[in-house]
Amino acid sequence: MSQTPVLAATPEAIRRAAAIIRAGGLVAFPTETVYGLGANGLDAEAVRRIFTAKGRPLTDPVIIHAASIGQLAEVGVLPNLYLRLAQAFMPGPLTLILPRGPNIPPIVSAGRDTVAVRVPAHPVAQALLAAAQVPIAAPSANAFSRPSATTAAHVLEDLDGRIDLVLDGLASTIGVESTIIDLTTTPPTLRRPGGVPIEALRAFIPDLAQAQQFLDSAASAVAPGQLLKHYSPRAQVRLYTTADGRITPQLAARMNADLAEATGRVGVLLTGFALALPPAAQAITLGDDPVAASAHLFASLRALDAAPVDVIFAAWVRRDGLAAAVWDRLVRAAEGHVIFVKP
Ligand code: TXA
Ligand code: MG
Which of 119, 126, 180 best tests ligand 1's pocket when mutated (most atoms within 8 Å of CB)? Predict the structure, then answer.
């Protein structure tokens, strides 16, 4: 039996969850990207509990979830220039960093004068926001630096007994977090690749800048959330890739050679080509389709961890569209241990 109740997201359960949020408690709920760990975004003490439950440093700001573009105005200041951008992608897997409105307590933004906001599309998230009638602060519902949760069971793995309720609304279908665009810089800056492909955003922001993507922990204080060690399974991840974004015979040959020499319990994420697996290896097929790979990435890392294995061999070559988000999460899971195989 879990200590934290898990309820199927019926209207009655959603009313109960909304009451917990309004009373300052913590509720994990599904969104289309990953599960979120929600608290009343207007209540500094409630938001503080999120950081404690996750073991997350107070320097890492959280995203505010709003019911609609209309409710954004209670949270931050959306420049008129970007209203069409918001209308095109909200509700959906896009987060915008805006000047922080006066209602939002500083702890949400780790003291910054900006705030990250998103309007989730998942019907359970929408129903919870409507019932709670307050904006909901919610980071991903995983323990700090672990892979994000895409099911209620993943949430319990990390947070059982530390939060008040889990609303079970089936699996998150996108599977990677929202794309984050900072509108407080000129030009706007991509802070995190995610569920909305960068290519789609360029139609609205042709001069979109790319933030430096991977930082080690020493540099992390200036760019919260860009920590290299993030989304990490307990096993060590070895990520293989090619510079030109194609699967080559040399890639498989190098991985096969390394697999033959691997010691300890070996896990493999298969991504679109065959490998010679050592006899006791645990393999999970992620495939090379970016949409399917995004949907199953975190669950696959968690499953290999639970096997358990000591090392995970993975390959990923594409960087376009949703594949950019898969690449980003795998590089972080690998803590930068990336092996570029030459043609
Ligand atoms: O899809 C998502 O965005 C999920 C679901 C639950 O909505 N949420 C999510 O939250 O991924 P979290 O906390 O795991 O990641 C939010 C990222 C963090 O890396 C944080 O540093 C960044 O957003 N962030 C939040 N507010 C910010 C701000 N004011 N300035 C810069 N970065 C910010
Ligand atoms: Mg997170």
Answer: 180
Torsion of CA 237, 240, 243, 246, to 10 degrees: -130
Residues with CB under 5 A from ligand 2 (ion): 140
What is the CA(63)–ligand 2 centre distance, in A?
10
Q: pLDDT (tens digit, 0 to 9) for every residue of the chain, 343 residues total?
A: 789 999 999 999 999 999 999 999 999 999 999 999 999 999 999 999 999 999 999 999 999 999 999 999 999 999 999 999 999 999 999 999 999 999 999 999 999 999 999 999 999 999 999 999 999 999 999 999 899 999 999 999 999 999 999 999 989 999 999 999 999 999 999 999 999 999 999 999 999 998 766 544 444 444 444 556 667 788 999 999 998 899 999 999 999 999 999 999 999 999 999 999 999 999 999 999 999 999 999 999 999 999 999 999 999 999 999 999 999 999 999 987 899 999 8
Q: How far is the CA of 62 from the centre of ligand 1 (A)?
A: 5
Give the dihedral of Cα atoms 66, 40, 51, 76; nearest 10 deg. 40
Ligand 1 binding pocket, CB closer than 6 Å: 31, 33-34, 36, 60-63, 93, 95, 97, 109, 112, 114-116, 118, 138-140, 177-178, 180, 191, 224-225
What CA–CA distance (Å, rounded) separates 301 from 148?
10
Find out whether 165 and 4 touch, Cβ atoms under 8 Å: yes
